[in-house]
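[step 3/7] fold_predict: job queued, chain A
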Amino acid sequence: MKANVHPKRIGAHRVACFALYRALLVQSHQVPLPPDRLQALRQVVRDTFRRNKEVQSKRWLTHGFNAGYEALELLRSSSAVTSDEQTSSSTTRILELLDKASAVTQPRASHDAPTRPPRATKPPRTEPFPGATPALARPHLQISGRRHVPVLANANSFPFLRFKKPQSPFLSRVLRDKIMQKTKRFTLLLELEDAVDEARAEDVWDREIAKTTAEGRVKSGSSRKRQRQQQQQQQQWTTAEPGWTPAVEGVVAHVKQQIKESEAKKTALATRMYEIVERERELARKEKAERRLRRVEARRVEGEKVDG
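[step 4/7] structure written:
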């Protein structure tokens, strides 16, 4: 077994586990037990494998495989056509082990911890606050306090302005809806591209059926008349109403146009947000310089008062 590799990711280990698992389930059907006991036996097999699927110790894995092979041999001896005494002893042994496993897995209700009532939590606000200024209405020329420059970020190529942390639930909801819409469009586009090939195959099949039907109708008349009728049928095939392909290709073009328009809107929005960030930085530098000048002027005035 390779070092630093989980056993469940090794092919040989997986094959051995699945083979033993299937063998135990198949052999359990042949044990002469009542239906309810057979169901309990199969459930014990499933629970045991599910409980030990994350084991990585070689010693515990070896012990588990040995126990599984011994259980398989016990099931085979119980279902084999041998003497009644040997079959009865194997079946009795299976019932004893099954009772022990049921006693171990049975929950103890008397020692269960009391369940606490669920804590009432306030649902997050997914709507904008009343009277909130839109993010694209910035920058504000006059503000109270220091100016905090927003950060231009993106979520799955969707630009947005982050003003503070944690992120507001409203913004998270808007981004999540946009990402889901984008994913649905791309998924639909992939499905439609596969449907185009199917539509073309359907059109080929329809033309072949129409051609075969038309040839079957031309039965009488001279060869020249039959040839003229076949030419007329050929013109009807070419001038017939469009098949499946144009309709599907039209939907594909519509979805591609929606994706293209969405990408153009994201580019324009990112450009506008970048301009907002640059203007915010410029105003922040200007306000910082003004605060510095005010401090210098205040110190100068205070110094003149002391000298006076």
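[step 5/7] annotate
The two ends are 90 Å apart (CA to CA).
The mean pLDDT is 79.
exit 0
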